[in-house]
TrEMBL record:
It is an enzyme of class 2 (transferase). Specifically methylates the adenine in position 2030 of 23S rRNA. The record marks Y4 as: Interaction with substrate rRNA. It catalyses: adenosine(2030) in 23S rRNA + S-adenosyl-L-methionine = N(6)-methyladenosine(2030) in 23S rRNA + S-adenosyl-L-homocysteine + H(+). Belongs to the RlmJ family. Keywords: Methyltransferase, RNA-binding, rRNA processing, S-adenosyl-L-methionine, Transferase. It comes from Billgrantia aerodenitrificans. This is Ribosomal RNA large subunit methyltransferase J. The active site is at D167 (proton acceptor). Monomer. InterPro entries: RlmJ (IPR007473), SAM-dependent_MTases_sf (IPR029063). Its EC number is 2.1.1.266. S-adenosyl-L-methionine binds at H19, H42, S104, E122, D146, G147, D167.
Length: 281
């Protein structure tokens, strides 16, 4: 039985990294008019009230989105961060207060154009129930099913372009390999798809299995970015957040580097950001 609930972690530094990357990728993709089918294989609830008892219990957003929100005036000269923070501001009922943090379904659905499509998969019954209560546009489908199998079954699609976010909780060790196989399978069916994969950086370094399987599977153009809070091994638990982008849009690397140079000082002295090609052209 699944036990992970994203409400305990909503708005943490990993969400900042993941959703800023997602926001930037969507920006780039929307520069062309041809329609896109988006997939969110592990959707979660979609929207997180920060006052919820689950979110307050760990209060991770206080070391994630909150310092950025508090610095939003100073960050308004950084284009990617300014747009990202404006999107969050538009979601608040009281403009000055950060009360709700948006999950990936929200980041994806708010920018859908008429001919774009979005499929949201969520396997946890209660999380899926929350997701069904969100007001989302008509071209969004919410599916109570396994997202990796759902992605595979849905490809190829009718739209010229595809973008998928794979954001599992990695509760089971096997998920690193399953995600890699799923990405390899998806790329065989949709060669030009832009695929984003989130992974945790933990002392056990299990993410290397995911990365190595993708490289050994012959996939090209895999860009990797990692945001860390501290050196590995200093403490137990997640010390960083990783994102892979397969077929990254041109210019993504520079835009995120510029934004992250402003983010890391707000996350603590030891926070670092780095990005490179895990596998090049
Ligand atoms: N993507 C969300 C966001 O950025 O706001 C957070 C997702 S959370 C890290 C992972 C979610 O995947 C959980 O809600 C969990 O219930 C769900 N989940 C776990 N296994 C799944 C599966 N095989 N298929 C679909 N959803 C799954």
């Amino acid at each position: 039985m699944l036990s992970y609930q994203h409400a305990y972690h909503a708005g943490n530094f990993a969400d900042v990294h993941k959703h800023l990357t997602l926001h930037a990728v969507i920006d780039h993709l929307l520069r062309k008019t041809s329609p896109i089918t988006f997939f969110d294989t592990h959707a979660g609830r979609g929207l997180y009230p920060l006052e919820a008892s689950e979110t307050q219990r760990l209060g991770e957003y206080r070391h994630g989105v909150l310092p950025l929100w508090q610095a939003r005036e100073a960050l308004s000269d950084e284009p990617l961060l300014a747009g990202w923070l404006e999107a969050i501001a538009a979601l608040q009922s009281n403009a000055g207060r950060l009360e709700r943090y948006p999950g990936s379904p929200w980041w994806l659905s708010q920018r859908l154009r008429r001919d774009d499509r979005l499929q949201l998969f969520e396997l946890h019954p209660a999380e899926h129930e929350h997701l069904t209560q969100q007001a989302l546009p008509a071209n969004v489908r919410r599916i109570h099913a396994d997202g990796l199998a759902g992605l595979s079954a849905a490809l190829p699609v009718a739209t010229p372009r595809v973008c998928a976010l794979l954001d599992p909780s990695y509760e089971l060790k096997a998920e690193y390999a399953e995600v890699a196989e799923s990405v390899l399978g998806a790329m065989r069916k949709a060669r030009h798809a832009v695929v984003l994969v989130w992974y945790p950086l933990l002392p056990a370094a299990r993410h290397l299995e995911l990365l190595e399987r993708l490289r050994d599977g012959g996939l090209r153009k895999i860009w990797r970015s990692e945001l860390t809070l501290r050196e590995p091994g200093e403490e137990r638990g997640m010390y960083g957040s990783g994102m892979l982008v397969v077929n990254p849009p041109w210019g993504l690397d520079e835009r995120l580097a510029a934004a992250m140079a402003r983010v890391t000082p707000l996350l603590g002295e030891a926070s670092r950001y780095r990005a490179d090609w895990w596998v090049g052209e």
